[in-house]
Amino acid sequence: MLTPKQQDFLDYLKQQLKDEGELPSLRQAAKDLDISHNAVAQLLAQLEKKGVVARDGRYSRTLRLLPEEDSRPRRPLGRELPIIGRVTAGMPMYAQQEWAGSVVVDDRMFGGESLFCLRVSGESMRDCGILDGDIAICEPRQYAENGEVVAVLIHQEEATVKRFFLRSDAVELHPENAEFPVMRYGFGEVLVQGKVVGIIRGTHASFSRNADFPDSSADGQP
Q1: pLDDT above 70 as % of the chain
Q2: Is the same domain home to 126 and 24?
Q3: Which member of 49, 50, 114, 124 is catalytic?
């Protein structure tokens, strides 16, 4: 941000450049503004420090104005992620493989490789903030740690989002809603498709790229 004096001086330089085709000398600027030569030098040094003007060389008297957009924060570019189908957060439903549109997310939050999205249907993950109609952003995975929220494929055709637990004799998929039962499957019946790393509700991402969902308290798991 420029102070009022710095902004007035910058406006003067812009007007001189527009009217004369070149920036004034320090002597000319001091005369036009009725200030000392040293005051002009200080103003130029301040503008240079703030990235508004630049010298062609360290000791050069030749100045140039920098484009205003160079001194402003740049808006981050988004990235487009495909929505590849719907999954249920209730009972599992058939996994649709067609591309069902796309969403644009902030690439500072979601920078992983080959991310994909799934539209959620149902309320079984309600208590960890995944609601009916949300879009789950997933990082491709073929494995899961206990307690992670993942998208899985059941019997190679049904997809669902649940909290994953590997037991000695089975795979358990836990809901985050007491109205839904824990689902148990044999090891060969469940294929992990990806870890849920974010949720989009409407146009806003609800979770950051590196955030984990709250740990489940089901069956005493930490």
Answers
A1: 74
A2: no
A3: 124
